[in-house]
Amino acid sequence: GEDVEQSLFLSVREGDSSVINCTYTDSSSTYLYWYKQEPGAGLQLLTYIFSNMDMKQDQRLTVLLNKKDKHLSLRIADTQTGDSAIYFCAEEGAGTALIFGKGTTLSVSS
Amino acid sequence: DGGITQSPKYLFRKEGQNVTLSCEQNLNHDAMYWYRQDPGQGLRLIYYSQIVNDFQKGDIAEGYSVSREKKESFPLTVTSAQKNPTAFYLCASSIISGDYGYTFGSGTRLTVV
User: Fold this and answer.
1) Burial category of A78 from C-beta neighbours within 10 Å (exposed 0-12, middle 13-18, buried 19 and up)
2) Which one of A103, B11, B53, B101 is most buried, counting C-beta atoms within 10 A?
3) Which residues on chain A are in Cβ contact (under 8 Å) with B45?
4) pLDDT tens digits for B70-91?
């Protein structure tokens, strides 16, 4: 069945790069997404990548897509304490519904 | 400004009572969704709707009901049949073609006592 897997926790120091990894199952997803959730809030779309791209860069964010291995990663350069949050990757499911991973909690220490 | 509004932010109900969570959007999005979030479980899809007067069950629809009488509104009713209703409920909306990244509401935390 469809499933999106992520590691649950990542801890980094301020100024370091963070890399959050995700594996997905549906190779027919046209787009793959990264969302950010701060405590007690809804999710905010961070970025997305079209499935025929290998990489997308958006300021401090770099998304890498390996379609062969169904692996997606999000790199945050120069990680700040304000980047502490839960990060979710998502693939397309039935209709327009998205399937989310369980989320990776990023903790940034100063 | 366009957005998606969930109300109330916190809701307390006694066991055995039905409760309805509100979700309204003014983004002119065709599709709307309800997800449930539990600690360590990520987001699980309850129901979604791509057009007025039509909706589909998600992975955990049992014990929930929805309606979509207007494009802007997609209320979720948590019925007494839902065995473990205490959770954080998130509503979202999107377009239905292209990169349909969701816009999320700020969530409703439901506690059943």
Assistant:
1) exposed
2) A103
3) 93, 97, 99
4) 999 999 999 998 989 999 999 9
